[in-house]
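Sequence in, structure out.
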Amino acid sequence: MYDSLTKILPDSFTSMIFALEALRGGTVLLNGPTGCKFYHAAVVGGVSMRSFSYDPLDYPSEFYFGQGQVPCTYLDSHDYVFGSKDKLSRLLEFVKQRSFDFVAVVNSPGAALIGDDLEALLRESQPASVMFALDTPGFSQTYGKGHQDALIALLEQLPLARKPERGYVNLLGFTLMDKYAHGNRREMIQLLKDGGVAVGSTLFDESIDQITNLSKAELNIVVSPENGLSLAKYLEKRLGIPYFIPTLGQPVGFPACERFFEELAEQIAFDLEPVIRSMNSARRRAYYFLSRYTSLLGMPKGAAYRLYGNYSLALPLLHFLTRYLGMIPVELVCSGVPAVTHQRQVEEFMKPFPRNENAEAEICFGDGNDVAASVLKKGYRCGIEIAEPSMGYLDVYEKTLFGPRGALFILEQVLNGLKFSR
């Protein structure tokens, strides 16, 4: 395992915007120059699917600059000297007319140095019933920290009170930078429902009213510790909700998915039978294709791969790709602040596989940047995206990496990728 990076990762400033824009009914006001706006609005618009047009003429308002999300105060040199109050006040009055459920003002790193009293401006304008400011975005801090800080700031504005109900859980750690985040969320909700457990909140793709249901949960499931552990600790301290971190990380691939639900059944009342049936059905289908493919080409056993991602995603993929499919990891690059148990397991898993930057590999797993770099620099013929940003493929059909359907989808990509990489 090797943990240095050859690319720039999104930081806490970016994740604050993404965390809040991923929710329904609210808006993030970016107090900063236009250069801080365009990337964030483009990613939010592409992943959240809230806009129906990419035509800039459909968004002619002063603060939107031809994009449907993340209005911006477009600060210039004059504002950095004399303050951003005038522009921000105009923007607050503008969004007030649109009746958002919540309004969050996020300072860009440069704007944080001006010293404007954002909370006073919000109190004066009253743009929404729930409103708050994130004055210091933590430009050099991790994506996961900014994501959780933003959600905690939102929760601080809500009058939550513990009302536990049997059979309710929360799922923590979903973010816009997860590949197929909406599909993953939907798959988990369905699998839990099959076992007799309802989801109170996921703090992702939900309205304020839905988020208040998190007080019903008897357990918080930390799907991704990198993006959910601090949030779980906050909810444990504020509402007394205990949390659970799956031993093998996210429920990706057959081994980790089975372990995930077995461990959950030890925590709360959960009927394993429906999940086991779904897993067995998926395993039978996987065996059919693996048997035919292996008899023809001998693959995927022995195929080499590189893997880039968070520890909580890398760990279950290592188990699925190496222990289930027999593939060989030649390089692993992990990012994020992991749960200690996941980091230790990854390091232990990789001991028999020393890092070899020059080794040939058939497949690269990573985000769109990793895949593009591998294809262009290392001559890979196949790259499989497991995180955002993507290379622009339009996923019309909602996909998932989680659960039995996700395991089959990964297998499908591996088999087809190897077919065309030979």
